[in-house]
Amino acid sequence: MTAKMNTDAFQRTLTARTLTLAQHLSGEWLQADMSESGGKTATRRLQRWQEVLDRFSPGSLSKRLQWDHYTLNAGSLLDRLRPGTLRENVPCAAWTETAWEMANTIMLASVDIEGAAFLDASDPIPFEALLAPVVSRYRATLIKECPEWSSQFSPQARAALCRELLQRLSANLARCLEHEFSLFRLASTATGAPGDGLYNQFINNLRDGDIAPFLLKYAYATRLASLALCQWRDNQLQLSYHLAEDRHALKQRFGIAPDKPVTAVRCGLSDRHHNGQSVMRVEFSAHQALYYKPREMQLESCIAQLCEKLDTSLADIVPPMLSGEGHGWAAEIHAQTGNPEQYYRQAGKVIFAAWMLAGTDLHDENVMAAEQGPVIIDAEMLASPVPLATATSGSGTGSAMTGARAEDATVLRSGLLPRWLSYGDGTAIQISGISAGKKYLTDLKTHCWTHINTDQMALKTEWVRVESANSSAALPPPCEYEESIIAGFSSLVGAARRLADSTAWNQQLGELLADCQVRFLVRDTTLYATLEQAVRHPRYSLTLIDAEIEQECLAATFLSHDTCPHVWPFLEVEKRALQNGDIPHFTLPVNATAWNGGASGPVTLFSQSGLDAIKERFMQLSDAEVAFQTSLIKACLFTTRSDPEPTDPPLARQRTDSTPSALEAAVHIGDTLLKMAVAQPQTQGLQPTWIAPQSLGADRPSTVRALGASLYDGQAGMGLFFAALAQRTQASRFYQLSENIFTGLLDSAATWSEELDNRHGGLVGRTALLFALQHALQLIEMPTLKTGLATLRNGISSAQFRPSGSSADWISGLAGASVAMRTNLPAPQSMPLAELLRQCVMTGPPARLVGWPDHGRYDDNNPAAFQTGAGHGIAGPLTALCQLLDAFPGVAQADHALRTITKCVEFLDHQWIPEKRNWKVSAEHNAPADSDGWAHGAAGILIALDRVKKLTGTFSPTAELALQRLRDRPLMQWDHLSMGNCGLIDMWLLLGEPQTAGHLASRMLQRHQSQLSWAIPGGESMQPGMMTGMAGIGYTLLRLEQPDRLPSLLVLDKE
């Protein structure tokens, strides 16, 4: 066979194995393999494709095909998914020539590569001996083709650029090479101590001819590596051209001599976009470096001019820069801080400017803590447009173009203020654009290598660790300088109002920003990165169609809709970018609301352009708006404090001589919450919501955002409270509020939702929503919601429904979920009871450790994991066992359940501290025994023991001692349901002591009257919700009057 024929066969085979899904489905590119083996491959692909598409909505494949106008029957579809050979009239893909060159370069390479300057013996790159000759060839070709590359970059800089190429080749091929090396080692009969003999033999075999079959086998990985070579060459040419063209302007702007070469380069400082381009640091001397950004930077330049007009101190809000065509240069800003008070005052100004100029994505990686104040080093998402009210998919992970949120018009959207995220190992990380950066784990896993380029070479998985640019800045926490931040923020209000009144300002806004492009996100970019990592697995690197089927998870978020969403054209653009080794990147003009980058024409994504959003902010800068934004700043800072002392002054109200009744106080709470509400954009009108700290989960901090869906501290709780208030007062304002809230929640429940389906419990998730809506409809007539309730109930009562999450607790786990949905389970239904019993852990001597620790978060042998309270401890599942046995008395597990109940009571007895007349909060030796709240204290335990008494007739003697103490105790520090006085009030109602409950409520009302505020951590405005805030206080006061009509949220039942 001639070399030409070998080349042709190689390229045609590669092309056939890297056809896209659309090319396969067209039937025009491939002659299908009709053998039995080909049929098995097609069946496997079809099954996997269905699995990927069905993530949120079962049976989505037919919709997927219809939306892309395919009319294939089942047999034809299966045939199109077969492997095969390229049809005669189909040309080879252009990159396959590069792949052939790569194979020949490796086979003809000299074994000695030690002289390559881009190699570093102290920091080896996986399989560098195999791939380095390819890099050397491209380096030599570039020197010949582009003299500017050699003249403008020092040998050290060129070595850094070449090393980047070697890293990219390794990233694309190394996992497949390692897989083959593992098979090679298993087949080897070599003996003796491990070293690098087997590794060298494996490399030599590839050089001797095995490389071509390897590249053909792992065709998709070969495609990515080949494209990386082409992209690198093109990007080096472009960089050299831009540097040569901009030399004179760089001298004028930054004082860099035209003949000064680049002495060092750091590559890959951002995600790769548009054919492998990313930000790089270009150093001209030890004290002079610029950042080269291969994108338009006109927006940053214009923003700097606008900010300077707002306040001269904001002239440096972005680094000094030079904007060119399709690229730009920015000065390096060093992380250093001076006077903290001055810094945070300037931070307040930056927060104001970012809010007024519709900025977003200004987190700690995009903002530098400089001496003069925060500097935005990546401002491509200032002047961001406002999303349409309609979300294009469920709010789950990876959802595309989430609809407008209440936070979008607030200071929260910028990302400058502190917020908490759950990452990596489950810990909560505080990130902020204005404070000192931190090293933290992300929720993205990556593969790292051990024993690189030796016989023991292996891959391991670890969480990606991020170090922000501000890590070296020594800044005190922003919560310590709240007054300085607020002062800086408020100081610009007058200037902004004067500009708003200026005709010249509005004209200048339009002129400056009209030609600028602003980036927008279709999805969280970490989803793309995770997907990019996943398809590098050897299993998916064989062919492009196998990789693309995995990438079809991007389609799954759209397919939860009944009709094709308007953002469907993004899918193909996203997949093509990923298949080119890029992270998808989208922009649109600042004065536009439609994206015009797809094949099917403009797609309207936004209700308001970035330019119009800025104009509106300036025109609507009222005192009330400023006060609201200021309260959000305080709320964000509050979530970072270690002590939950109230920070807000009481909400304005007049003192009266008499203590209000429980009903009067509840009505006042309802009206106060009504005034605090903000409009949440929805498809049908406006859904009211509240912006406040929201819990990230058990034992986690809170982050400030619009209320989620939960009954615990979210919208379901608010809807139930207003339904109770409407029933008692017959006030239309409360009725309308409840109806609007539940209408919005049912819209969210129509598809899979992160808020509703990530965790199911008694007070969170779909199960909690069912409970809240069911009881709201028993209180007031809302005919429009009955169909939604029926749909919700049918989904939960179906045999396929299983509560999600690893926890068995009451708030967010199986115990609470089982009780919340028990009235909707087809009798007899023992599944929840059996599952609760299965998850119960008993270790050590009898009754030493008994309970339901969260297996995903705790070691089952760790005493601290065995908590006693009701929220996340043993009292919650114990209560649930009793209620489930009462609801399903004849189930087969009844005896097992009763034995478990006995063991649980014995365990609680072991945690009793006589001198405290209370139980420890956990089985840990030094755990405190001084908590009386429901979630982590005596109230929840006593409720559970009362359930045991009602079921078995036995009541723990320690319980009576605890009750005697509680009858005489003073008011608790806080008033809320979860860990405050309202939890105790509800406990007394459940235990049949309404007079004790009323007496405690009276004392709580008297304290409220004297202090003119409820005792809530952070203040009333911080906690509107049911279990942690004002709604729960109001609901408890209403329950005092109607305990048999309003269900208790502590047992999810009426008493």
Short description:
The chain has 1055 residues and is an alpha+beta fold.
Describe this structure in words.
With 1055 residues, the protein is of the alpha+beta class. The protein has 38 helices and 27 strands. The strands form twelve sheets. Strands 3-4-5-7-6 form a five-stranded antiparallel β-sheet, sandwiched between helices. A two-stranded antiparallel ribbon has the order 1-2. Strands 8-9 form a two-stranded antiparallel ribbon. Strand 11 (419-423) and strand 12 form a beta hairpin. Mean pLDDT is 88; it is low at 391-401 and 646-655.
Features:
1055 residues; alpha+beta; 46% helix; two-stranded antiparallel ribbon
Unreliable stretches (pLDDT < 50, length at least 5) are 391-401, 646-655
User: What is the number of beta strands?
Assistant: 27
The percentage helix is: 40-55%
Main beta sheet strand tally, sense and closure: 5 strands, antiparallel
Q: From the alpha-carbon coordinates, what is the Rg to the nearest angstrom? A: 32 Å
Shape: globular
Instruction: Assess the beta-strand content as a share of residues.
Output: 5-15%
Supply the number of helical segments: 38
**Physical arrangement of strands within the biggest beta sheet:** 3-4-5-7-6
- Output mean pLDDT: 88
Structural class: alpha+beta
Give the termini separation.
88 Å
